[in-house]
Amino acid sequence: MKHLATGLPSDPRRDLGFTPTAIRFGLLGASVFFLGTLAIYLIARTGQIDAHVTSAQGLERIRMPIWFWFSTLMILVSSVSLWGTKKFVENRDPRLARRAVVAAAALGWAFLLLQVPGIRALFREHALMADQRV
């Protein structure tokens, strides 16, 4: 493949359409958000937050909906499929790479669809807890 402006051979690793720095900042932002959320959750569980903000006793009763375990499995299998896509591309097998991308996309959609009943279950649990406090 030749570079459009110079006509010289281009490095396929450079033709990503995005900069690696932007990806690093995005991953850093997502990681900081996750760690901040985890820290707040752990602080609330230990009762270190004012009772007007949250109730540590109430947090102990919230159960993780089973839907989230299934969606976690979907996203992990999707990650393996994406890793396989990379390997198939490196081995120059476009047929298997295409199948792996389709599988990863389907698993990604399954992940998103499984989030909906999980979030609904959390809202139901919250509503039940709110009714008990009144």
From TrEMBL:
One of its GO terms (molecular function) is cytochrome-c oxidase activity. Keywords: Membrane, Transmembrane, Transmembrane helix. GO terms for cellular component: membrane. It comes from the Bacteria. GO terms for biological process: respiratory electron transport chain. The chain crosses the membrane at residues 22-44, 65-84, 96-114. This is Uncharacterized protein. The lineage of its organism: Bacteria, Candidatus Eiseniibacteriota.
